[in-house]
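ESCALATION

Customer reports they have been waiting on this structure for their group meeting. Please prioritize. Original submission:
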Amino acid sequence: MGVVNVTPDSFSDGGRWFDTTTAVKHGLDLVSQGADLVDVGGESTRPGATRVDEAEELKRVIPVVRGLASEGVTVSVDTMRASVAERSLAAGAALVNDVSGGLADPAMIPAVAASGAPFVVMHWRGFLEGGNVRGVYADVVTEVGDELRTRVEAVLEGGIAADRVIVDPGLGFSKDAGHDLALLARLDRLLGLGHPVLVAASRKRFLGRVLAGPDAPPPPARERDAATAAVSALAAQAGAWAVRVHEVRATADAVRVTRAIEEARTAPPTPPEPGARGAEGAR
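Update from on-call: job pushed to the front of the queue and completed.
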């Protein structure tokens, strides 16, 4: 899942793709680099970000969704507003990615249910205008799993079909680096919820903390792509449905190699040809 932020203030690439033409071109570039779908968002969800109004979000998102969909791209819309989701689906989007899991707008679940579109339910404990809110856990893996299960049940009761639900642990949302790493280490527990899992680790703060160590300042967001590719490969190996990333090529390559190794692990051994020597023996 390649990311197109049509915003001036996203944490990793704010302003780079703010123009519609540039954003559509970037989305097409991500597909050429290996993205299977493109996630278009018009509102930053970084800690401390101020929400944009509905009209501005629609102005940013709809032309980009329409432009990408008209080129045959599978588009996901990243929004917490039902009106933006509905308009985006009408413009050609195929999936709704709501970081609030339908909690920010009571109209979201009925709107998605009526459309039949897949819906990403992220673990969410509220808006982050005041920082990393309510990020206290006794057992982050168990608590996030339980809270996601509760939210999924509400989504199902709201009419969204079970085979349309995708879950996301919400890395970085009300979580510190230790919480994020613990969730990635136990991705099997989230897979146990019975729904596809989306992992959105790209360029996030916890990667900066890991790369910097305990005393140094973390590197800028755009210098965390190699770390993102490593997480993507591990998530793919663990069974994630998709990884959401800003820089697609490195992650696509990492996932491809991971898949090849997994296939080699399960493939029956190939007997050597009579009289043939292996590559190592020929040295």
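Sent to customer with the following note: The radius of gyration is 20 Å.
Escalation resolved.
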